[in-house]
Amino acid sequence: MTIAATAPAVVQKRRSAFSRHLTAYLFISPWILGFLFFTLGPLLFSLTMSFHDWPVVGERTFVGFDNYRTMLLEDPQFWESLWITVKFAAIYVPFNIVMSFLIALMLHHATFASGFFRTAFYLPSVISGVALVTIWSWIYSREYGLLNFMLSLVGVDGPNWLGDPGLAIVAIIIASLWGFGGTMLILLTGLKAIPKELYEAATVSGVPGWAQMLFITLPMLGPMLLFTFITSIIAAFQQLTIALLMTKGGPLGSTYFFAMYIYDNAFKYFDMGYAAAGSWVMFLIVLVLSLLVMRWSSAWVYYEGEVKGGDRNA
Amino acid sequence: MASIRIENLRKGFGALEVLKGIDLDIADGEFVCFLGPSGCGKSTLLRSIAGLEELDGGAIRLGDRDITHVPSARRDIAMVFQNYALYPHMNVRKNLSFGLALNGMKRDEIDRRVESAADILRIKELLARKPRQLSGGQRQRVAIGRAIVREPKLFLLDEPLSNLDAGLRVTMRVELAALHARLGATMIYVTHDQVEAMTLSDRVVVLDKGEVSQFGTPLELFYQPANLFVAGFIGSPRMNFVEAEVAAQEGVHITLSGGGLKRPVVFEAEAAPMIDGKVTLGIRPDRIEIVPPGEGELTGIVRLVERLGTESHVHLSLEDGRDMTAVVRGTHPVANGETVHLRLPAPHCYLFDAEGRAVRRRLDAETEALIVNEKGKRVA
Questions:
Q1: What's in the keyword line of the UniProt record (chain B) (predicted)?
Q2: pLDDT at B71
Q3: Can you name the residues that pair with B77 across neighbouring β-strands?
């Protein structure tokens, strides 16, 4: 009798729970649909492509892991472009973070026109890649470039920045660093979020400025530094626009980045399957690097909300 | 430990003058509270002593040393912040020892101080925990511990209990008093809570708009407030004020009438004052008596009665529109809308001149003895 009496109530409850969930899913459905069609779909599609010989026009043939095997074992260009990208990342990532941190630190302490400088430093981040390349191509130009003109003022005969295989990658690193505004803004926000009482308590306790930076500022910025570290690595591996437009991978392939290698396979040689395999290799490299950084970060990144061991006796 | 002398201290933020020439003399080992409403400058004064604010003028001496321009780190002080300011990424032991280690202190000495402070504050079992794993009261203890390990000449505490709940605040208040007794250190404590100030302090500095309104023992402030501001600020519920006029004066006896008074009140001053014209009469709510019709100096209409069990707070409107509160014992049968007659017993009245300065009143022998006894304890 009790069961009979409560059964409709249970059904009612389930129904109301279902309709409640349905409403929630309907609300987020635009995002879910967008994710399915524009992110997950293409992702799986590219994975399928990577197991095929997939010309733009013509027959598609399933080749299993052949694309991957060829790339890793028989294609020297893969390793060369990967090596150039790793070199680029090894210089770009630390410079991007250190420079962003130093500028953020200066802006954080600036009392004069800090709003203006914040905007000025962030501005390069919002201009398009093509505009950025146009500006830097002009700066680097051997004959009428701004950089060589300034060097000439101090009696130095400027080099051919984009024509010298040793300098071209440096030129691209500098141009890429120009867009440090996003990283800088994240770190500046992090700096502003550190309670000033922590520094005051340290000051009263006689903790010198360098120690405050080392033992308070950097640990408190940990999560932001980790975030910018990972996003910088991803950005470095995805570097394409500047090299493609500024040097076209030259001179002598010195700026032939991994992303450009994928791009050429896809849109120059129309070997979509091979290009898709390259994209997945890049994804796996970035994934492994990110996981390594995440694991390493547990030693130096502190999260306020995280509780490891011990009881919270609130 | 050391005494502290502040001379003509001035500090402003742009056009806003926050401290307008503060003079204070705090004795060695004294517990002094800076008390005042928000924006009165009490925290700025404390931060100035800590060396966290650049001064516009004046001098600060700690013992026989002028520390006005000495960097914060070398002032031999320790400060406890309102939000504790614990380093969230360091455990309690590291929080306590951080400053010491960086000042080149030997490991053994650091350990001795940390253990000793942890012992005093009963936080030994918390040394390995991070601040987020502590309750509010435990965090507060760690913050105080961080001050203790420095073994400073002067402790500065900026509203250290204001983030705690009411019950914990009472417990920590008692612990702070015990800690002061144990360390015998000079302590300056900023608060806007008069109960904290009255219960903890040897003396209280009442600040108003960047100036010292009065500096005295808690009972002095209560029984002999220097002005209308202190009289209104100290005591809860706050003192009632009635406009009046000096009708006659005979030596120390001043007869007051007019305003809302139906009968004259004879105020007895400590010494014959020079006072005339309009004055303000003050009386604390618990001294007002509700009397039968035809008696008393005032009448009022009851607006609200708050019955708290042991006492009732009767909120009244006087004939001139002013509000008044009377505290009566027990659950008085008075009802809303009722007209009541009020007696203002002269020995419990306070008198203020037209500028708001108090006329020192004659206190009964018992109260006088209490104040003298309190002062004596402070000196001892």
A1: ATP-binding, Nucleotide-binding, Transport
A2: 92
A3: B154
Length of chain A: 314
Q: Tell me which H or E stretch contains B62.
A: strand B57-62
Question: Are residues B332 and B207 part of one domain?
Answer: no
The answer to whether position B376 is within a domain reads: no
* Domain hosting residue B287, numbered range: 230-362
Co-location of B217 and B250 in the same domain: no
pLDDT at A121: 87
Q: Contact B290/B358 with Cβ under 8 angstroms? A: no
Are B201 and B328 contained in the same domain?
Answer: no
The residue ranges of chain A whose pLDDT is under 70 are: 1-15, 305-314
Predicted local confidence at residue A48, as pLDDT: 93
Q: Where are the domains of chain A?
A: 75-297
Q: Tell me the residues of B at the A interface, defined by beta carbons under 8 Å apart.
A: 50-52, 72-75, 77-79, 81-83, 85, 87-89, 98-100, 102-103, 128-130, 132-136, 138, 146, 150
> Which chain A residue has its CA at the smallest distance from B157's CA?
A201
Contacts of B77 in chain A (CB under 8 A): 204
Q: Which residues of A touch B50 (CB under 8 A)?
A: 200, 204
Whether B326 and B357 map to the same domain: the answer is: yes
Q: Give the end of a domain, one of B201, B229, B257.
A: B229
Residues B164 and B275 in one domain: no
3-state SS, residue A62 = strand
- Answer whether residue B130 is part of any domain: yes
Q: Are both B266 and B354 inside the same structural domain?
A: yes
Structure ipTM over 0.95, yes or no: no
Domain co-membership, B187 together with B329: no
Percent of chain B clearing pLDDT 70 (strictly above):
98
What is the fold of A75-297? Answer: MetI-like fold (1.10.3720)
Average pLDDT of B137-143?
Answer: 89
Q: Which of B251, B266, B270, B226 is CA-nearest to residue B367?
A: B270
Q: Average pLDDT over chain B, rounded to whole?
A: 90
3-state secondary structure of A13: helix
Lowest-confidence region among A13-17, B223-227, B358-362: A13-17
Contacts of A304 in chain B (CB under 8 A): 88, 132
Q: What is the pLDDT of residue B368?
A: 83
Are B149 and B175 in the same domain? Answer: yes
A contact set with B (CB within 8 A): 195, 197-198, 200-208, 211, 215-216, 219-220, 222, 302, 304-305, 307, 310-314
Residue-wise pLDDT tens digits, B61-78: 998 899 999 999 889 899
What residues of chain A lie within 8 A of the CB of B133, using their CB?
307, 310-313
Question: DSSP string covering B162-202, please?
Answer: TTS-HHHHHHHHHHHHHHHHHH--EEEEEES-HHHHHHH-S
B102 to A208: CB separation less than 8 angstroms, yes or no: yes
